[in-house]
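Entry for the shared binder. Reason: the reviewer on the internal report wants the predicted structure included alongside the sequence.
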Amino acid sequence: MAATAVKTVDSTPTITLNQQQVYGRVILSLENCLLPQERLESTPSAQDGLDAESETELRVLGCEMIQTAGILLKLPQVAMATGQVLFHRFYYSKSLVRYNYEVLAMGCICLASKIEEAPRRVRDVVNVFHYIKQLRNSKQIQPMILDQNYLNLKNQVIKAERRVLKELGFCVHVKHPHKVIVMYLQVLECKNERLTQLSCT
């Protein structure tokens, strides 16, 4: 890949890779959408001493919470899938040991709802996650008390959303395979509605 340095007006060099602009360390390209094998094997969580099985369980749990919250918030499926992708991308850069997965899941679903143009209020997201947590722990359903703990959690979610944006270099575009799968099913004249439904979940 040939790289050339191009001078800009303010005399700071901008590197061009095959006619693509590189801004800082972030390269906007579909060629780098997959993580290299060494990054998949040696995650930040593993480096902090978390075993692979626990990491997988926490990732799955975070994605399940995003999916359940998205259904309760009446978000489109594409927003839930985007939130899950952002969740995974973040934890390939940062450790599950250092960042609370529940708060980050809330931040990811807030961000994903904005990206997919179906925004939800942070208050609604916090309330839905509170409800899910009570169901999972088999507790009696109680409304969330609007006290200082609630305000602190709300601020943590806003900060988590910003942290995801910063860590991903504001590259939050996600190209999902669902539309392509549905298109292929239509081209193949597949009349099986169940198969079409499964392709979007």
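Summary line for the report: The two ends are 37 Å apart (CA to CA).
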